[in-house]
Amino acid sequence: MEVTWFSSKEKVGQISLYDSNMTLNMVASVPFEAAYKVQVGMNESGHLVIEPVSKERFVRGDMDEYQLLPIQFKKSYSRINSTLLMKKIAAALGVELGKNPLKYETKWDEENNVLVILTGKEGK
């Protein structure tokens, strides 16, 4: 008898974009647990990218400190707060952000050490 077991653990990373912040579920948050700051950008495919930045790398002083943002952790999620960042993201994606979130799946890019937010056709 073949059985497919259901898991109560969430396996898919997800991010919610609001007008003032981005909220990552715990699956998407895991790679940032040791991060001192994060850097947010967009790749050539039009997907958002979040890179963890260690304190050691930050202290070296070779990064633009205005591109680095704090990430805050709670029990079941993490959050990056910045209204200015969210305005730039909305403009880059051609979307309107508000109190109701836009939700996208995420995937960890092991090779480049970044979280990719699937904002293209793969997103929700």
Describe the fold and architecture:
The protein has helices spanning 26-29, 55-60, 83-93; strands at residues 13-17, 21-25, 37-42, 48-53, 68-69, 72-73, 77-81, 102-109, 114-117. The radius of gyration is 15 Å and the shape is globular. It is an alpha+beta fold and 124 residues long. A hairpin with a 4-residue loop joins β8 (102-109) and β9. The chain is 17% helix and 35% strand. It has three helices and nine strands; from the N terminus they run ββαββαβββαββ. A nine-stranded antiparallel β-sheet has the order 5-3-4-9-8-1-2-7-6.
**Count of individual beta strands:** 9
Q: Could you tell me the mean pLDDT?
A: 91
Shape: globular
Find the structural class using helix and strand composition.
Answer: alpha+beta
What is the ordering of alpha helices and beta strands? EEHEEHEEEHEE
Sum up the structure in keywords:
124 residues; alpha+beta
Quick structural gist:
The protein has 124 residues and is an alpha+beta fold. Helix content is 17%, strand content 35%. A hairpin with a 3-residue loop joins strand 6 (72-73) and strand 7 (77-81).
Detail the topology: elements first, then pairings.
Blueprint: E1 13-17, E2 21-25, H1 26-29, E3 37-42, E4 48-53, H2 55-60, E5 68-69, E6 72-73, E7 77-81, H3 83-93, E8 102-109, E9 114-117
